[in-house]
Each structure stands twice: as C-alpha cells, then as structure tokens.
Write a structure and sequence with these properties.
The protein is mainly alpha-helical. The chain contains three helices and no strands. Helix 2 runs antiparallel to helix 3.
C-alpha cells in the first residue's frame, strides 16, 4: 500500500478514535511509523540498485553502470521517483 495512503488512514483513525488529549502523541507515533517504513523502503531500493551496479561493473556495461550510479545519486538526494 502506498505510504501516503497509509499515513492518511492512520491519521483518520487517530482523529476518530483517540481522545484529543493524546492525539498529538498518537500523530507523532504515526509519523515515526511512516518514517521507519520510508527508511526501510529506501534502504531496500539502495541495496538493489547497488547490486545491479555491481553486476553492470562486472560485465563492463557502461550504460547500465551510468544509469545505476545516477539512480543511487537520486536516492541519496531524496529525488528518486519512489520518494
């Protein structure tokens, strides 16, 4: 499920079912949960691209090597299509 949708659903649940006195803390927990998911997703993607880059280097494929290096730069900058 898309993380933005998940965050929206969790936020609506907090608004609907959590007492106002503890909503701020609950919203903070939702943010922490989503941040952890984003980090895990980025880490997995970074690992997959790094492995693909290693394969491109191993076989001397320059076009793939450049592509995967660029993708790693996008992930590091936070501008990858998945982010």
């Amino acid at each position: 499920m898309d993380l933005a949708v998940t965050k929206d659903i969790l936020s609506k649940l907090v608004e609907s079912f959590v007492p106002e006195a503890t909503q701020a803390q609950s919203f903070s927990e939702v943010d922490k949960f989503i941040s952890a998911k984003v980090y895990a997703q980025d880490d997995l993607l970074r690992d997959m691209i790094s492995r693909s880059l290693d394969i491109a280097r191993q076989y001397g494929n320059q076009s793939d090597k450049q592509y995967f290096q660029q993708q790693l730069e996008f992930i590091s900058a936070g501008t990858h299509d998945t982010q």
